[in-house]
Amino acid sequence: MPLSITILTALLFLPSVGVSAQTKMAAVHGTVQSHTGVPIPAATVLAKNMATGLSRTVSANEKGEFAIQPLDPGAYEVQASRPGHISPIPLRVELRAGDAVELKFMLETGSGEPERKAESAGAEAANLSSSGTSASTSAGMSNLISEDQLAGLPLNGRSYSQLATLQSGVSDPFAGSASRGGGSGGLTISGGRATANNFLLDGTNIMDTGNLVPRSAAGVQLGSDAILQVQVFAANYGAEYGRGSGGVLNSITRSRTPQWHGTFFEYFRNSKLDARNFFDPGPEPTPFKRNQFGSTITGPLLKDRTFFMASYEGLRDRLTETVIDHFPDKMAREGRGIITDDDGNDIPIEVNPRVKPYLDLHPLPNGPSLGRGVGENAASLFLPTNENFFTVRVDHKIADRDSFFTRYSLDDASSHRSQTSFLFKTQSNSRQQYLTLVGARAIGLPRTKRPSA
């Protein structure tokens, strides 16, 4: 019985795996011809990932056409060859998620010098989006949060979804926490509702319970060091993204590396350079300290076959805020105060003995009296926040055409926020877990059938 339940559970997840592959991969296609324009059938076309060293190989059909898909985003060298022909110098192309790059190779026969580079259709390579439109007009291609932006731009709180507002047509009209660097979680894309967007991680839906940005209880979306790039689709995206009528943010995790690499970071922020809040009771600003630290490691488990990536990020936030309350003052508690009504009549304050024990539960105001038996109280409230984010990914090459990857993400956070009185505070806890398994097979164009005699 437990085995059957396990198999059934795995089958239920299979449809989402297909969607993941569609929304993440890129492709290279085109033709192989001679310098006179004659198609060269059975030519071998190889696409080699410059970062990982892994390659995909297909053969052109009788019309000289080829297609290599799916391919992980990254930099590739693509080369065409055939015995008896001189191969041109490999063409370097940069593939982003959803790209479909069209190439045109021209091979020479004999012993002539190879071409300086592969000739492409038009001027250079024609870069198409997954929906077949030009990349220069595709919303998905023009709005891209690149690896350089994720790693290089300073982020207060390191919530990488905030970078989406740098793209055209994206705004965050809701208030966020400026002190902690957290956004509101309500992005408006091309004027659509914040709850109409769709957020993906390697094609897997990661919306929060409010159908907003998948933030933690700390108000941030960590993991920028584990992300390669983020596609921001404002409009005109393919049907495979679906689900919402607004925009789409598709985050793609980092992939494999042929050598071991590791990074470590720590960001520290405190209140030493903060200005004093007008309501702070003392001459100095209230204490504040934040540590964000983590590391990322990538490398091979089996040479040229199995690769590993793990990333951890921790957040330790120690914020103290000043909360202004209003409590009955000393004279009101003792029944010695006077309240002036709207008509100008002085009414003495009378305290019922049965009410006095409840009045004593409130602290005496430490600020000025506001009249009518009420005084102002300013108090510091300690609001700690902790968060741990972890991602691990394994890529495995089964054969030259077959591969798969699995990724597990865990985000565990707890945060405190103030209520209307400093006597009370609210604790929020969140725990988000995502498991994704994607299998891919590189396919070429089918052979065209020759007409029968």
Description:
The protein is elongated and about 110 Å long. 9% of the residues lie in helices and 43% in strands. The longest helix has 23 residues, at 2-24. It has 2 domains: 23-128, Sandwich (Immunoglobulin-like), CATH 2.60.40; 140-323 and 381-440, TonB-dependent receptor, plug domain (Ferric Hydroxamate Uptake Protein, Chain A, domain 1). Strands 17, 18, 19, 22, 23, 24 and 25 form a 7-stranded antiparallel beta sheet that branches. Strands 1, 4, 6, 8 and 9 form a 5-stranded mixed beta sheet that branches. Strands 10-15-16-13-14 form a 5-stranded mixed beta sheet. The relative contact order is 0.12. The protein has helices spanning 2-24, 139-142, 147-152, 330-333, 356-359, and strands at residues 26-34, 44-49, 55-59, 65-71, 74-81, 85-86, 91-95, 100-109, 126-128, 144-145, 170-171, 188-189, 198-201, 204-205, 227-233, 248-253, 261-270, 288-302, 306-328, 338-340, 346-348, 369-371, 374-397, 402-418, 425-441. With 453 residues, the protein is mostly beta strands. A hairpin with a 5-residue loop joins strand 20 (338-340) and strand 21. The model is unreliable at 1-23 and 111-142 (pLDDT under 50).
